Amino acid sequence: MSSISRRKFIKGATLTPLTLTAMAQQNSNFRSESQFDFVIAGAGHNSLLSAAYLAKAGFSVVVLEGRAMIGGGAKTAEVLLPGFKQDLCSTVHSGFAANPAYRNNEINLRDFGYELMDPEIVVHIPFLDGASLTVFRGDVDRTAETIAQVSKKDADTFRHLAPSRAKFLSAPQSERGMSRDGVFWQRLGELSGYDAGRQIWESPYMQAANLTTGHFSGVPGSDLGTGSQAVTMLSHLRGRPIPRGGSGMLTVALGRFIEAHEGVVLTSKPVEQLIIERGRCVGVECLDGSQFRARRGVISTIHIKHLLQMAPRELWGEELLDIVDIWQQEHAMFAFNFALSESPRYAFSEGGTIAPCEAAILQRPESIFMLNSDQATGELNIEDYPLQIVHASNVDPTRVPAGFGAVKIEGTMPYALKQGKEHWDVIKEHVADQLFEYYARHTTNLTKENVLAKVLMSPVDIERMNPAMWRGSVHQRLRTFDNYSPYRLPIPGLYQTGGCTEGGGSITGRPGRAAAAIVLQDNGKTLEEVVA
Known about the structure:
Blueprint: H1 6-15, E1 35-41, H2 45-56, E2 61-64, E3 76-77, E4 86-87, H3 94-97, H4 100-103, E5 116-117, E6 121-126, E7 132-136, H5 140-148, H6 152-170, H7 180-190, H8 193-200, H9 204-214, H10 232-235, E8 242-243, H11 249-260, E9 264-266, E10 271-277, E11 280-286, E12 291-300, H12 304-307, H13 318-325, E13 333-340, E14 346-347, E15 353-354, E16 358-361, H14 370-377, E17 387-390, E18 405-412, H15 424-440, E19 451-457, H16 459-465, E20 494-496, H17 510-522, H18 527-531
Parallel strand pairs: 1-2, 1-12, 2-9, 12-20
Antiparallel strand pairs: 3-4, 5-8, 6-7, 10-11, 11-12, 13-18, 13-19, 14-15, 16-17, 17-18
Helix pairs in contact: 2-11, 2-17, 5-6, 8-9
């Protein structure tokens, strides 16, 4: 981003045509004055959750979203054909399901249209030679039966490790190293997923299956510290809930909650500058020149790399500048969306076919090393990249017209191609066609003839859709290391939430709730009092 200014980048992103206005949140009762207790810059799910807690506490809030619709990484829109509701980024909300905001109904989103479903078939992993593995929610034995088709030894290992892993994950962090099993899991996590997988599983099928489902988190299992990816299938036994109607139902429900508590949510209001008076942040200025003043504070979900361009550098403090100067993004994401004439189906190891919510593809465990190599060279060797395949309409019929299907093929590819990042605009159609034909070979019923429409988002398009996804990194930072922005920023009156803060990316709401707790504390209230 060093070669383009924040103003030019945001202006270009704002003017990029996207068919996303159907779910835009506008408040018809917006008051003419532009002063609020809190101004929230950005309308991703974390900033919306922070705003929801503050509105519930009785503070006046305004949320400013630069795009034509709210959502950040939780957007659903009919971008393919009428009636095809496609998630533009996230789909799975297992992290948010565990957040007290939802789990304890601190923010009663169920009353505003947010409903989670938890598919019985968690993920299916097919191979080109006809082998397959399937994870069933909460069912160790049935999952192990599919593993036994490729390795009886690995099926026994899976049954043995499942209760140990579940006990480890349920223990408090401070107690996890106090038992033999706990020490084993901690030491395993320090390895790479590739090496850990070779220690645990004899079958390359199991090694590849766990690496490709582990790559859903965005970090390749070739890296040190990813050892837990070797047992991702065990973790997936807990399920992967999705919202009925699409991932964007979370942010739509949060928007409705905020407005029901007299907050204001405005779209097409990209924040360009922080307003600093006497060393304190007192508001923001948008690209169109409009200003919004904050009596108590500004909460940002703008990527920290961009945020630092919005106020004089000397105000940020050396410690934060040191963090941001060496900021590392994770591998960039792509998302290729297809409307289909029928729903995808796969061969099932027990016979017949299966129609899961998600599938994952990787033929060989050693192919995981191609990701870092291609990042370094800016090349694409897509023959055996790990792929996440999402077809939520298989379990949620509200997402497509009756009798039809849809699929999203996603994963990571280099943002900076050796020909330049703009080369994505030249090649993405060809790359997407190659990947779809390769993917369709894993199904029992799909060919390119089943494709009715497609919307293709390269890593560069991901950033264009949401500038907070700096360099196409949907989680906003490399999550292997504890490199994150603090919730309280060095400029008084300015706070940060979202993927750049502790808790990081994915749809968890953890940063949004944590930021709200800190802001409430600084304003004489506690989160516990607000939700009581």
